[in-house]
Each structure stands twice: as C-alpha cells, then as structure tokens.
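Possible race condition, two jobs.
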Amino acid sequence: MCQPCVSNVTHISSPLAIEISQARELSDALEQIGLTETRPTLVIVGGASGLTQNYFTRLQRLFEEKIVPLVEKLKAYVVDGGTDAGVMQLMGKARLKLGGTFPLIGVAAIGTVILPDRENTFADAAPLELNHTHFVLVPGNNWGDESPWIADVASTLAQGSPSVTILINGGAITLRDACNSIRVNRPLIVVAGSGRTADRIVAALEAEDADRQVNQVAQFEKLSIVELENDFHSIGKAIAEKLSSPSSQ
C-alpha cells in the first residue's frame, strides 16, 4: 500500500475526488473513493466543436437514447476527461436527465481544472462536470496530460471485464486518447460522420493521412467504424458487443 502518497478524498459539490501523483497509487486511490468492483468499462473520448446545431442535437440524442440506457443496463463504468465541455458534458447531463446510477468517472490533469480553494494560473482552466460521480485528479498542467491516465484508470477498473473506447468528433488530444487506448490494447469504436478526428481516421482507411498517429489508429486491428445514423442502432450494437465479450479486454 502506498497510502501516504495518495491525497485525502475530497468532495467537490457531490462527487468524490482524489488526487494522485504516481501510477502505482492508482488501485489504492480508486478503492479509497469506493470503486472496488470489477465491471465492464466504457471510455468516451472526443469533443463537440465545429458542429452545426443539428449535429450537436444528434449527439445529445445519441447519449440520451442509446449510450446512457445501454451503460445503465450493463451496470458498466464510464470513464472520460471529466470537464464541463463536449462529450463529457453531454454524458453527465444525459446521466442526470435519465436518472442513471452507474459510476461516471472523470480523469483530469490537476493543473487544467478549476477547483475550490485552489489557485490556478492556467489560462484555459475548465470547470469539472459535476454530474460525474467521481474524479481522479492526476499530475499535469496542460491539456492532454490526462490522456494516458484515462486509459490506465479504465484498465484498472475493468481488470478482467471487457472494455471499449468510443471516439466521437474530437481534436488533437482525442487522437492522443485513441493512441493510449491502442497502447493498452483496448478496442476502439470510431463514430463516422461525427466530424474532425473521427472522420480523419475513417478517411485514412481509404487514403493515408499526413499525420502518423492518424494512420496508426486507422491500422489498429481492434478498430471498428460505425456511422452516426438516425436511430444509433449500429453504435449501440457495437458498444454492447464489445462490453459483453470477454475477448474485448
């Protein structure tokens, strides 16, 4: 046990939060905030920038009509970046609206988020999305520092249970998130038609992208592509299959 290295559990409004400084502290930290069960785990990465109102509304529907009900049914964990923006905001609001009971864990670099009673000089610091149930605050002062931690938190939570990452829209940091899912050999679902990084990965299947990381993701053997169709059937089916299959881990 490296208990002395792990910061005390704190409350940010209603969610539980814990700060860690080293990867070896992760299991103990998750136990301290009550995350002790092994469950299927869904990682959500991406953004919601550069979308028309119509597409943004479709993403809202995706979370409310398909992702949240499915996660609730499977009693899964959900892990994301935890800030009040993009897909993280959509996830938190959808869980609240539908009365979800599953744990929703935000993983954020400590220097990039606004916390009570803590001064932050980072100009782009963001508030946490407080419909999350738990936060793991990790070292870092720049966007993207949380990326490897998101992958590792999900692996620690899932352990022997299946897990999958779904990528929606997103920018450069989302690409880094995808590469970290590949690092831990986690299956990756990319939502085609959701814009930006997601669509660049899909396009790279047809013609090589100038970015090495985009090509790396496109060539990942556990990559699945699903369309952002109106009824979201393919997306729900892909997530359900990955989270129900022992071979997904």
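Job #2 (started ~2 s after job #1):
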Amino acid sequence: MIPRLGVNIDHVATLRQARGEDYPSVVDAAQVSLSNGADQITIHLREDRRHIQDTDVETVRLVTKRFGKPLNLEMGVNPEIVEIAIASTPEWICLVPEKRQEKTTEGGLDLLDDANFIRIEEAVKKLKSSIKDVKISLFLEAKIEVLIRATQLNIDAVEIHTGEYARVFANGDDVGRYIEQYKAAKEFLTNNKIATHAGHGLTEESVVPLLESKIFEEYNIGHWIICHALFNGLSNTVKNLKSVFEAHPLK
C-alpha cells in the first residue's frame, strides 16, 4: 500500500489573484496533478478568499469527479463556508483553524477550548448529516491531550500539523523527537479507529523520514510543489514526488 499524495493547488490561485487575471488556471493545475500521480486535490477556501474562490471549488470538483479522485476541501467552521461545502459535496473535508492576519495556517485546531470544541462539533454534525458519505479530518497538533478530545467527535482522520517538524528539518537539526511524537499519535488514533494524515511545510526532502517511518497514510503538500514547479514544471514535480512515495510503501 502506497501512502496517498494530496496535491494542494492553493498557490496557483495565489499567483492568479496577485494580478486579478484568469491565469494560471487551478483547473489546469488539478488536471496536470492528477494526470501525473496525485491521489487527490486539496484546496483551502478561506474566509478572506485570498487565493481559492467559491467558483474554484465548483470547477476543481468537476475535475476530480472526472478523474475519479477525491477532493479534499480545507475550511474553517464559518457558517457560510460550511454551506458552500455542503453544496459542493467533496469526498473529504479537513477542518482547520483560521486567522485573518496569518500568512498561512499556523497550527492545529484548539480542541481544549470548550467553546471552540462546541463550534467544531456542531460543524462536524452538520457536514456529516448534509453530505452523503463525506469523511472529515481535523488539522491538529500531535499532542495526546488534544487527540483525546478528537476521539469525542465523529471524525474519520486527523491531519497532523508538521510545520514545526519541517522547520527543524530545514535547519538541519535532529527531528527524532517529532518522529516519536507522531508514532505515539498514530498508535493512539489507530486504536480509536481514526486514520492519520500529515501536512504543512513538507518538501520532497523532509517528507522522506516520515515515509521511512511508515506513520502516515496520506500527505498533503502544496507550497513546495508549486514553488518547485516554477523551475521544473508541475507535471515533473508531481511525478517525481509520487515516485518517492512509491519507493516507501506502508507495508
């Protein structure tokens, strides 16, 4: 079994929105990614619409349907975004924290705050009752006290925030403690019948120790892919990254 590669194409939209043009095309990005080995397409519809727009959700959804691959919609629990998700019926929804002033998602959801937990719980219930067979993941830190609260929700997976791991790796420092933390999270979640995914800040280099550790079933990678594609092409970048995944089967 090969770990799944989710290609996040948000930053294709970032380039488009920078000039207000209709290019580069997120539809083309989705098609190229899926044609070259991506197992799913991931997009984040933010409240401030800084990159992905409402219409992108519809058009990218059509592409993933045509390829028979999942759309993974990242989103906050804003009621307007919840309604858009319900209308677009993605196979996967990943609930993430969101702050207007952040450059990118800075950490996992805060499930320890009771008011926040209730908001997330209500969103999960509404999405599950409104979208047939939808699967929901939560973007979380690999902290057992947080994961314990996650088991109280009707979710299918946890996507572990790998941002700090990726920064430590990039600095050339030892990442062993993160690997051990992720292994403990994986064991706990597996025992509770919850799948374990990973995402944020990963590159072709930094994902290798995680693949070698055989912890995660799915990885969502975006910023590095789009940056690397500027010089190497999107098709080559996705194809080469997929070959790295294929060299590290889970079993």
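Residues 2 and 198 are 14 Å apart (CA to CA).
Logs attached separately.
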